[in-house]
Write the structure tokens for this entry.
Amino acid sequence: MAKMNKSFQNLKQNYLFAEISKRVGEFVAANPDAPLIRMGIGDVTLPLVPAVVQAGKNAFDEMGVKETFRGYEDSGRGYPFLREAVAGYYKSMPSEPGSSPQLPTPDEIFISDGAKSDSGNIGDIFAEDCKVIVTDPSYPVYVDSSIMGGRQVAFADFAGTNLPETADIIYLCSPNNPTGEAYTYKELKKWVDYAIANKAVIIYDTAYEAFITQSDKPRSIYLIEGARQCAIEIASLSKIAGFTGTRCGYTVVPKELVLENPAEGGHANAGSAWKRRQATKFNGVSYPVQRAAEAVFSKEGQQQIQQNLSYYRKNAQIITNTLTELGIDFTGGINSPYIWFKCPDSMDSWDFFDLFLNKANVVGTPGVGFGKNGAGRFRLTAFSTHENTEEAMKRLRAMLK
Ligand code: MLT
């Protein structure tokens, strides 16, 4: 009989958001008329912007005409038009005064169906005995996929105090999911220096970069000197352009990034390994979606997505104003769509989840689901509507009275 991957025994029973969905499903079955407000999983509520919709429609029209129809994409790593648009987007990012960052070029960019798959799949290019560091609390995919790959995971705090002496793979996310904090240039440089000193690779998740508003916080790790030799960046259009259901993202593997490979004279190029992996296991993102994604980076698309981001920022402010008024400690909401707060009355995360669901019919995410350091914390997203965000805060106030 085929044997199961033994590492699965080391996983938690359920993936965090699957567990939430199960509990919410049970609640809804028992209370079908409850006026539920969902602020748990970071799923967007505003539709795709007009520039994106039009580009997608045009591309589907092309697919219906013999002369412009397209089948498999040759490279499987993304059409040049989209990789060039992404490279142009990097050039538009503000950088630290006086710095001259070397930004990703189109041939270092790999188009994907989103950050979740790439942050898990990237493990394929590393040896099984690589030691992984994950900041705790963090997006559960980093830990779960490392465990599935048979790797050991050590934990660090967001700032990287008391880091172990050795590390091979380091998962970072800024603006952070779940805490909403974002690294400053200085703080991120510290991680880059640590990775270089350890010959480690940082897997840098920037799914929320467009939410950054403060000028001392970089929107890409490549704005930090040295990052090209130690970092892979994984980005997504899900949160910044409403692609959670459309699916598109990109991963950057700089040419300078090498992995130890005794079989081939000592070193292997990480980008070639990722290209090999993708060519084997991934057939690319559909042409219409890539055209729609290209439109995100157009002038019109950028203006339109900024309006959506402002809408979500206003929700974040409604939440943070309420927490301030209630005297509850929180982080996030400034450079991030997530607000991370201390459960009132020192409650346990899951107890607060149940209370908030049952008493106020609001779904959030229990902090402990993001790691041990999330115990006693709770996460809300700003991706709801204004009306539901206001209503959820009204119910929170009433519940805590
Ligand atoms: C989250 O809520 O943490 C994310 O939306 C989950 C995801 O992007 O997969």
